[in-house]
Design goal:
Blueprint: H1 16-23, H2 38-48, H3 54-58, E1 63-70, E2 79-86, E3 93-99, H4 113-124, E4 127-132, H5 143-157, H6 159-162, E5 164-174, H7 176-191, E6 198-202, H8 213-217, H9 226-237, E7 264-269, H10 275-287, E8 292-297, H11 304-307, H12 312-329, E9 353-354
Parallel strand pairs: 3-4, 3-5, 5-6, 6-7, 7-8
Antiparallel strand pairs: 1-2, 1-9, 2-4
Helix pairs in contact: 5-7
Length: about 350
Amino acid sequence: MPTSCSDGGAPPPFDPELRLALGSLEDGARKPFTPENLAARQEWDAAARPRPTASDLRADGRFEVEELRVPGTGAGPDVTLVSARPAGGGGPLPLLYYMHGGGMIMGNAWSVLPRLLREWALALELAVISVEYRLAPHARYPGPVEDCYAGFVWAAAHAAELGVDADRVVIGGKSAGGGLAAALALLVRDRGGPRAIGQLLLSPMLDDRSDTFSARQMAGVDTWDRTSNTTAWQALLGDRYGAADLPPYAAPARATDLSRLPPAYIEVGSAETFRDEGVAYANAIWQAGGQAELHVWPGACHGFDTFAPQATLSQDARDARSRWLRRILTRPDAAVGGDRDEAEAVSGRPNASPVRPGSP
């Protein structure tokens, strides 16, 4: 396993349990993404990644699950949402509006749900909506974030029929999904849309420039390194890649105003590519007078709790996330987090329909 990099000196050591788990991964699983292998890697991921059906997710009646197709923004296509909640729960539940990871180029709304439902929906008695946003390079910016925005606006407007509390909504995501969650928080603030009471940003993909110290330090070492990151950002941004005037809704690290945002939970590993951009984002929120809880897990690489879920560090990270979620959902001022008197953003296309078998 690499122990040094060409730019920035030796990287921080991996946690011992994670190092063992990394050593057991197939070489192909850690091969960097490049423009040349991107299409083949996407095909492999789509075939290999588990994609449970709604019936699978219901887990013998423990959860209520429905796939919805809701209007996109403007001329954008409809967006698929997967809505799930513990079965038999009374009263409106708080909502976690979640965006999956995958570097903007992989993943789906279904595969993340078993874990979200097991770890949070039951323990915290909350509902989850997972967003099936479009992937790059087939969809460039702003397609994916507009998909997430459209679904969020629709969910807030239809909270009563979804059985969720519109005043207790947390937006969240991991990796690319964490970056989309941060972008969504900026977008709803600036459009005067329905606001969330918190943003859960797990190893968020925030900076298209890939030029932080940690990005250089972990090149060729982290599970998601500078080469893969650059490939993904190029796929998302196309001709806009590297533009000086790139909007913060494309890459939240570009934001110059981080005021008036929901309290944030930001998590990175000390041995991951996104370490420094995550730390910088938390610091920028503090400097803007906002709230952020920052965790830098020692020896953690990108996606550490996915491939080593039983590692002590992974369990500690899950516990910390759950504590923050419980705290943010039960705060006395939780219902104030949305600035509800701001102008309400609407999509102009108010109806949604369940996705039927065989639907396109």
